[in-house]
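Summarise this fold before class:
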Amino acid sequence: MGQGSSALHRKPPSAANYTSETGRDRVVEASLTMVRERAMLKAESVRRAGGAKATSCLLGVPLGHNSSFLQGPAFAPPRIREAIWCDSTNSTTEAGVELKDPRILTDAGDVPVQELRDCNVDDVLLMKTISDAVAVVMQEKPLRPLVLGGDHSISYPSIRAVTEVLGGPVDILHFDAHPDLYDAFEGNKYSHASSFARIMEEKRAHRLLQVGIRSINKEGRDQAARFNVELFEMRHYTEHRAYLENLELGKDCKGVYVSIDVDVLDPSYAPGVSHLEPGGLSFRDVMNVLQSLKGEIVGGDVVEFNPQRDTVDGMTAMVAAKLVRELTAKMSVL
C-alpha cells in the first residue's frame, strides 16, 4: 500500500490525548492571543492620546483555588472594575490624577483561569500562562501591569514575569496580615500562603518589605530569617511609621513592585476578605506609605478581596477599587 494510502488510514489521536495535549495547548495560546490583542489595542490608544512614559494596565486573574480557606477571591476582578467606575465617586484620585485619561489607566481584560482549568491546565502550566500574560502586557510599551486578583498565589507568576522582562530583581513592597512564606502550605507549593517563598527562592526580590504582619508562626519567622525579609509587624507599627512613610525603593535593582493584600487592613475597614485578622492598618495608614513612596513602580497587584463576604453594601469592593485607583496614580507617568 502506498504512503499516501497509509496516511489516510492512520488512526486519529484519541479524544483523551486531544483534550490533555492538543486542546489544552490551543486554549493556552488562544488565551494569550486574547490578552495580546487587547494590550496592543490599548497601547495604541495611549499613543493616539499623546503617549505616556508609563500607563497602568489592569489585568484580571480570577483565581481562587489556591486559597487555603475560601475561594471567593476568584470573583473579585469584575467587582473591582465596577467599583472603580462607580457613579458614587468621581474619576479623579486624591492627587488629582484623572483615571478616564487612557494614558493613565487602561484594561487588558482577564486571563480566563476557569476555562484553562476546564481544559486540564495544571498549576505549573497555569502559573506559566499567567506569567506569559503579564509579560505580553509589558511588551506593549508603555503599559505596566496592575493585576487584579484573585488570591495571593497570583503574585508569584506576576512578579516572575516582571523580573524576567526587566532582566533582574525588584524591590517588593508587600502589604499583608500574613507573610505568605510557607514552603508548601498543606502540601501545595502554589498556595496563596506560599507565594513569597517561591519568589524568594528564585531570587526575584532585591528587597522584600512586608508591612502589616500580625499572623505569623515559627515557620513564617524562620522563612523570613532565611530570606532576609524585612518584617514590619503591627505590634511595632508605631515605631516603624516614620520610616515607612519615607521609603525610597528601587535603587540598585529594576524598580518597585507593590503587592496589596486587602486583609492588611483592619476588618472594620474591609470585612470582605477570607481571613479576618483584627488589629490591622487603617486605610489611611496604607495610603500614607503608598503615596509617600519614592521609586519607580514597574508593576503591582491588589488581591484577596472576597466578594462573597462583602456583606456591607459593597464596602470592601470600594476599598479594593480605591487601592487600585491610588496605586494607578503612583504607577502612571505622563
Q: What stands out?
A: The chain has eleven helices and eight strands. The longest strand covers residues 205-213. Confidence is low (pLDDT under 50) at residues 1-18. The radius of gyration is 21 Å.
